[in-house]
Every structure is written in C-alpha cells, then in structure tokens.
From TrEMBL, chain A:
Record's protein name: Energy-coupling factor transporter ATP-binding protein EcfA2
Taxonomic classification: Bacteria, Bacillati, Bacillota, Bacilli, Lactobacillales
Predominant subcellular localization, coarse grouping: membrane
CDD domains cross-referenced by the UniProt entry: ABC_cobalt_CbiO_domain1
Oligomeric and partner information: Forms a stable energy-coupling factor (ECF) transporter complex composed of 2 membrane-embedded substrate-binding proteins (S component), 2 ATP-binding proteins (A component) and 2 transmembrane proteins (T component).
ABC transporter domain location: 3-245
Enzyme's top EC category: translocase
Membrane disposition: Peripheral membrane protein
Enzyme nomenclature, EC number: 7.-.-.-
Cellular compartment(s): Cell membrane
TrEMBL record, chain B:
Listed InterPro entries: AAA+_ATPase, ABC_transporter-like_ATP-bd, ABC_transporter-like_CS, ABC_transpr_CbiO/EcfA_su, ECF_ABC_transporter_ATP-bd, EcfA_1, P-loop_NTPase
Protein's UniProt name: Energy-coupling factor ABC transporter ATP-binding protein
Span of domain ABC transporter: 5-239
Keyword Signal: no
Keywords from the named record: ATP-binding, Cell membrane, Membrane, Nucleotide-binding, Translocase, Transport
Keyword Membrane carried by entry: yes
Membership in a protein family: Belongs to the ABC transporter superfamily.
A GO term, aspect molecular function: ATP binding
Membrane topology: Peripheral membrane protein
PANTHER family registered for this protein in UniProt: ENERGY-COUPLING FACTOR TRANSPORTER ATP-BINDING PROTEIN ECFA1, HEAVY METAL TRANSPORTER
Subcellular locations according to the entry: Cell membrane
TrEMBL record, chain C:
Major subcellular location class: membrane
Membrane-spanning intervals of the chain: 27-57, 69-88, 108-128, 149-171, 203-224, 245-262
HAMAP family xref list: EcfT
Name of the gene encoding the protein in the UniProt record: ecfT
Keyword Transit peptide: no
Subcellular location(s) of the protein: Cell membrane
Family note: Belongs to the energy-coupling factor EcfT family.
Membrane topology type: Multi-pass membrane protein
Keyword Transmembrane (UniProt): yes
UniProt name for this protein: Energy-coupling factor transporter transmembrane protein EcfT
A Pfam family of this chain: CbiQ
Origin superkingdom: Bacteria
Length: 284, 277, 265
C-alpha cells in the first residue's frame, strides 16, 4: 500500500495555552513494498508521524491516504479495523503489550480481533513463533516467564500474526544485544523481500544504511529530507547542521579522506567501504 | 594490584528460575580500574551488580567490597561506597526536581542541610547540569536524565561506580554525552568504574573486559586481547569492533599486520599501503 | 487526560507562586469554607472580585481557570437547573407541573453557579501555582503533630511524593499500552457493557505488570542509594515562612471581617 501524507499538521492541545506542533505541514509519500527508514532526533516527531498511518492519531489538518483509505480530521473511530489489520505496528519495548496467560493466546489476540477464525489464528501463531526464532514449545508458556528478549519476540509475533501488509517498527531493537538486534532486523528485511512494506524508526544509522532503500529525515516536526540513504548521507547541509549522524562506514571513509583517499560519494555500508579501499589502494 | 572487590564462588538463582543466573562465579576487581562487563541479554551481568551492592543475597561464596564482607551488618556502609546508575532513566528518579533527586542519597545519610546544598551544587556542576537544578526530571532528555542520575550517585562520594547498561536506552547523542562524562570522571576522580554494556565500542577505554555467559566468567583480559577474538565474539552476543570487521574484509587483498588494530591504527596501515604504490 | 486543568502545575512566577505552599494550602481550604457564608449579591460579588483579583496577580491567563470548569460542567449545569426550576416560591413567574420558575429560584441558581466558580477557581489557583511536591511537603508539615501518635508521617509523605512523580509516567504508559492494543484491533467504548469491560483487560494487565516492574526498579534504586525506612534522614527541601505569608493570612482575616459585615448588612 502506498502511503501519502498531504499537508498534514498535528497540533497537540489545540486551542489551549499549552498548544504545540507535533507535525508541521508534512507532505510525504512512502512507497509500496519498500523499506523506508525514518530518522530524526528524540522528540522531532517521528513517532507522531507513524501513528497517523493506522489512525491512532488523526490530523489536525491535512489528510493521509493509506492505500485507498483516506483519513481526515473528520474521520471517526468506526470502521478502522480493516485499516489497522493492514498496518501492523511494533512499538518501542513492545513486550509491555503482552497480557494473555499463554504465548499462543497472546499471539492469537490481534488476528482474532480482526476477525480471523480461531483455527486460522492458531495456525498463524504456530507459524509466527517459528518465524521470530522461538520454537513451538514456547506457545504453552506464560509470556511473563520469558526473558526480556524472548518477550520482545513474542510481541513481534503477535503483530505479524494478523499478516499486515505494512509493518511499522518504532525502534524495535532498543535494549537488545547486538546479535539479537541483527536477527530481528534480518527478520524484517526478509518480510519486506516477501512483499511487505516496512517503515522503521531508528537512531541507528548503520541499520538505515544496511537495510533501508528510502529514508526520511524529520527535524523540528517537519520533513527535512527524503531520498535514498546514500544520497541523504552525502548531503553536507544535513551533516553540518547536526541533524543527522553518519553510519560508521561513512565516518571511517571521512577519516581516510583526511589522508590521501578521496571519496566522490561516501560509502555507507561496510562492503562498499572495503571495495572502495581496495580499489584505491590498488590504484585502478 | 590491590583488589577493591573480591567475588568468590558466588551463586544466585532467581525464585522460580530453573537455572542459576550467577553460577559459581569468582572475579577480582582492582582498585581504580575501569572494568567492562559484557555478555548476552540474560548472561547475568545486572544480577552481578545487584549482588555486589547487596541488593540481592548470594546463596554461596562471598563478596568482599573494600575490605568488608557484603552481609546484613555491613550493607549500609557498603552501599555508601558504591553508586549504581541503572538502565531506565525514568525508573530511578525519586525527587520531583533535579536538585531534590541529587539530594536523595545525602538525605538518606542524614547530612545537614547546609552541607547538602553545597554537595548538590558541586555534583550538578560535575555533570554540567547546574542550569537544570529546579527542572522536573520528566522534562529532560534521556542523556540529561542519566547525567542527573550520575550526579545523584556522585554526591555521596562513592569509591565505586557501577553503570548498569546506563546508556542502552539513550539515543546516540545522549549516549555520547554520558560516555564523555564517564571518561572525564575517570580522569578527574579516583574511582573504580564497572560498566555493564552490550556495546563493544563502549568498552574501548576500559582496562579490562570480562565476558559473562550463563552466569559464568568465560573470558577476562585487556580489550586488545578480547577484540582479537574477532568473529568469535558473536558467540557471546557481542559485535566485533568495527575496525576488525573492516580489517577482516580487507585481508584477502591487503597485507595488514596480524592482531587487533583500532580505527586509527587501521587507517594508518591502509594509508601506508596506498602510499607505497 | 490532557484536558484536566485541576491538579496540574503550570510553571510560572508571581507573588502567588512565591507564597509558602502551607499557607496557600490552608488559605484555599479556609476560603472554600467562607464561600458558604456569602448570602447576598454584595457578598458573592465581593468574593468573586477577590478571586478575580487573585487570578490577576497570579499572572496566569484566565482561560486556564475557565477550562478548569469544564470537567465539572455537567454537575454545575445539573445543580443550577435543579435550583432554577425546583425552588419553591409563593409568586412564581411560570409554573408547569412540578416545575416552578421564580425570581427566588433564579437568584439561588446564580448564587450556586458563582459558588462553583469560586471554589473551582481558587483550587485551580492552588494547583496551578504549587508543584505537587510542595503540596505533599505541606501535607507532611501539617500532619507533623500526628507523629506523637506514631503515625508514619515522613514515610507517608515520601510515598505521596513518589506517587505524584509517577502519575505522568503511568499516564504515558497507559497511553502507550492503549495504542499498542488499538493497533492490535481493540475497540474501546464499542459494543455492550460486557464487551467494554472485556476490552480493558488488555490494558489493565500490562499496566499492572509495568507498574510492578517500575516499583521494583525504583525500590532497588532507592535502596542502592541508601534509603532505609525514613528515619534518620535529613531534609533537603525546606519550607520558609516569610513576611508575605503573614500578609496573606492578614488579607484572609480582612476578607472574613468584610464578608461578615456585608453579610449582615
């Protein structure tokens, strides 16, 4: 599903003395079946932005089009289920949404709310628990007996179980160890390759460089830049204003550039970096 | 080197857990060293911190902190020597304002108010948060919150600071400011720093790294020796340092020296190779 | 949640902000008491003028106070209408069945309305200008005599201040959990009563779990910083009673005297 924001403004506490802007006249297209990363400092408006995609927030003005569903300031709370079924959302520290007495029931909760039959939901739970790297033996356990990392995986399985076309991830790997993080990121990349749209909010520029095809930079409630990660990380104006930091490979290349290396475009992944170093050392 | 903490054969099992979180662990921590403790989620790192501070009680063995055994009798004195900065900045604020929170530890020790006012100011100055004195902690960024938490710990002048994954919930900016602060404290104060982390880059400045797995010490050595393990580090949930990853990918075509090179050394070597041709 | 003005502190600076919270706390309750002494147009008018004056010198926008009325709107409307149509009168202007409309009824309804406004404005003034921690300090200070009967005043005060600190955190947590469950297809406020009650289970359980884990983390953090049981602690935060606090009490005394005078006039 293509997602189109049109002049969307979100102000909180409208008409009150504490009024402020969460999003300021945002126009943006998020392409179907792509992996889009959304970056920006804490409090820049990233989380506010994605909450509009499944109508957890509604615009103060402007509209958002998700597939053929339009959300306007007047949209009421009825009939949002088809939209929310199609837009799965993994929140930051999603383990805090677990509540059922078994892992299986918790994973089945979302799908059944969206009208899936019990048998199908069960089937989905079995599939998803494997997908997130836990075995079927976990299904009968209580989610509260699991470790933090395992709870995270169960929560993710619970979102995936409704088979959403679009998956929104709000810093899904915060607090995990590096190996766990990579497993989770690879999982989402696989889902995208199977035809899902992935939208990832992250502070980790290496993840952006390694996984995303598009990136959006949000700054002070506005869209500051949209494009391919390679182009954006090479946009000097974003770096000098301290809006964006570089992936490690690009930072490494920058340091090499202070010696006798030159990079017309900074490499952003480690393989780009090492290929370029080899090329320049061999002098071809 | 003199030990500030000696841990001998300590075991701890959480109620209702099947296997122990800390399993017959022994470890010496030297006075004034910066020690990193790393390992997967669930390897027992935070449990170890709680045992050292007597927040939970070990089933076997003994822990000696600065010459005193951790037990019911010594516990308050030991806690006054150790300051812990925890992972979640929101879950450790007691005070309603920054200054109140920094004062909490001093209040517990019954320090007279005039002295407290001075200590609070001094501690806030050390972490460069004096301008935020009367602010509500809730209004601060993650990095600022952790700096206030560090000030709260510094105010009582501990000889040991434990950073229990204190940067893991921060954004890159917050992480940077907190790390710089620790670095600076390390230079300015005589302190033993124990930092528990997942982030290999954070261990670079420490003197020793201890790797835990399933509640046991599997490795303890200097960062260089640990980083030499290269890809094997992933067995312990860790990431290989970035410069090792780069070096590994270059090795098939470029002749680089053996062993771990940090980023500067690696750049230097690559530069040498390129200028030779 | 954000619509509640009563109970919320608004950072600012004015003479009202600088008054000792104990004084403000007592004055607020005292004022609510004397509101019930007002009995005629002049006395209500006088109190209203006083409250508006207090609002003026607090340098807070009147809009905040008017918004403070909103959560109570239905109660106010109900009470006012009750007085308006059900006050018995010998010479009604209009009469239909059980309904009676009279000048007496209108007058009493207006008084009731002003009484609500007075009480809500003055309590809003207290909470807007006094931080929750100052309120809990005041309560501690006012309850201090109870120490004699072994009432754990310091512990209760600490508990209160921590509870106050965690209210915004728990509100955030609740919003987050609700969002997560709505994203998983929960509709709040739809369907029959049973359906509605059921839809809160996925909120309440996670909220309990995270409250406990926050409480556990906090307890560990407090213990690690040497907190025992509240005894033998010194206090960083001190309340200081100054000249202007005496002045404020004198003002209240004058208000009372004038009120008693207008009342019998």
């Amino acid at each position: 599903m293509e997602i189109i924001f049109k002049n969307l403004t979100q102000s909180y506490e409208a008409n009150s003395p504490l009024e402020g802007l969460g999003l300021d006249d945002v126009s943006l297209t998020i392409h179907d079946k792509r992996f889009t990363a959304i970056v920006g400092k804490t409090g820049s408006g990233k989380s506010t932005l994605v909450r509009h995609i499944n109508a957890l927030l509604k615009p103060t003005s402007g509209t958002i089009l998700v597939g053929d569903r339009e959300i306007t300031p007047e949209t009421n709370n009825k009939n949002l289920k088809p939209l929310r079924k199609n837009v799965g959302m993994v929140f930051q520290f999603p383990e805090s949404q677990l509540f059922e007495d078994t892992v299986e029931k918790d994973i089945m909760f979302g799908p059944m709310n969206f009208g899936m039959s019990e048998a199908d939901a069960k089937k989905s739970a079995h599939k998803m628990i494997e997908l997130v790297g836990l075995g079927e033996e976990y299904l009968e356990k209580s989610p509260f007996d699991l470790s933090g990392g395992q709870m995270r995986r169960v929560a993710i399985a619970g979102v995936l179980a409704s088979e959403p076309e679009t998956i929104i991830l709000d810093e899904p790997t915060a607090g995990l160890d590096p190996v766990g993080r990579k497993e989770i990121m690879d999982l989402f990349k696989n889902l995208q390759e199977q035809g899902r749209t992935i939208i990832l909010i992250t502070h980790n520029m290496d993840d952006v460089a390694n996984y995303a095809e598009e990136m959006v930079v949000i700054h002070d409630a506005k869209v500051k830049a949209v494009g391919k990660p390679k182009d954006i990380f090479n946009d000097k104006s974003l770096l000098t204003d301290d809006i964006l930091t570089l992936p490690r490979s690009a930072a490494f290349a920058q340091k090499l550039a202070e010696k006798n290396f030159s990079f017309p475009q900074l490499p952003i992944t480690i393989s780009e970096l090492t290929t370029e170093i080899k090329r320049q050392v061999h002098g071809d | 080197m003199e030990n500030i903490i000696s841990i001998k054969d300590v075991t701890y099992t959480y109620p209702e857990a099947k296997r122990p979180a800390i399993n017959g662990l022994s470890l010496d921590i030297y006075r004034n060293e910066w020690l990193s403790i790393v390992g997967k989620n669930g390897s027992g790192k935070s449990t170890l911190a709680k045992l050292i501070d007597g927040l939970i009680e070990s089933e076997t063995g003994s822990i000696i902190v600065d010459g005193q055994e951790v037990n019911e009798k010594n516990i308050w004195e030991i806690r006054s020597k150790i300051g812990i900065v925890f992972q979640n900045p929101d879950h450790q604020f007691v005070g309603a304002t920054v200054e109140d929170d920094v004062a909490f530890g001093l209040e517990n020790q019954g320090i007279p108010r005039d002295e407290m006012v001075k200590e609070v100011d001094a501690a806030l100055k050390m972490v460069d948060m004096q301008d935020y004195k009367t602010r509500d902690p809730q209004s601060l960024s993650g990095g600022q919150k952790q700096r206030v938490a560090i000030a709260g710990v510094l105010a009582t002048k501990p000889s040991i600071i434990i950073m229990d994954e204190s940067t893991s919930m921060l954004d890159p900016n917050g992480r940077k400011t907190v790390l710089n602060l620790v670095k600076q404290l390390r230079e300015e104060q005589n302190m033993t720093i124990i930092s528990i982390t997942h982030d290999i880059e954070e261990t670079e400045l420490s003197e020793r790294i201890v790797i835990l797995r399933d509640g046991e010490v599997v490795q303890k050595a200097s960062p260089k020796t640990i980083y030499d393990m290269g890809h094997k580090l992933t067995n312990y949930g860790l990431e290989e340092p970035f410069s090792s990853q780069v070096a590994y990918l270059l090795k098939d075509e470029l002749k680089l020296p053996e062993g771990y090179l940090n980023e500067e050394e690696l750049i230097e070597n690559i530069w040498k190779l390129s200028s030779k041709i | 949640m954000n619509k509640l003005i009563i109970g919320r502190y608004l950072p600012g600076d004015s003479i009202i902000y600088r008054l000792d919270p104990r004084g403000k706390f007592l004055i607020t309750f005292y004022f609510i008491g004397i509101v019930f002494l007002a009995n005629n147009v002049a006395s209500y008018g006088f109190l209203l003028l006083f409250v508006l004056f207090a609002v003026y010198i607090s340098k807070i926008n009147l809009g905040f106070f008017i918004k403070g009325l909103r959560p109570m709107l239905w109660l106010i409307l109900f009470t006012v209408l009750l007085q308006l149509f059900f006050t018995p009168s010998d010479n009604p202007m209009w009469h239909w069945g059980i309904f009676t409309l009279s000048t007496d009824g209108m007058r009493i309804a207006a008084y009731i309305f002003i009484r609500f406004v007075l009480i809500i404005f003055i309590s809003t003034l207290l909470t807007l200008t006094t931080t929750p921690i100052e309120i809990s300090d005041s309560i501690e200070s006012i309850l201090k005599p109870l120490k004699v009967i072994k009432f754990p005043v310091t512990q209760v005060a600490l508990m209160l201040s921590i509870a106050l600190r965690f209210v915004p955190l728990l509100i955030d947590e609740t919003t987050k959990i609700m969002d997560a469950q709505r994203a998983r297809g929960v509709d709040f406020g739809e369907g029959g009563i049973m359906q509605r009650i059921k839809s809160f289970v996925p909120i309440l359980i996670p909220l309990f779990v995270s409250s406990f884990s926050i409480a556990y983390d906090l307890a560990i953090a407090m213990e690690s910083r040497g907190y025992k049981d509240g005894e033998g602690r010194s206090k960083y935060r001190v309340l200081s009673w100054s000249k202007r606090d005496y002045m404020s009490l004198i003002v209240m005394l004058l208000i009372t005297i004038i009120l008693l005078f207008i009342r019998s006039y």
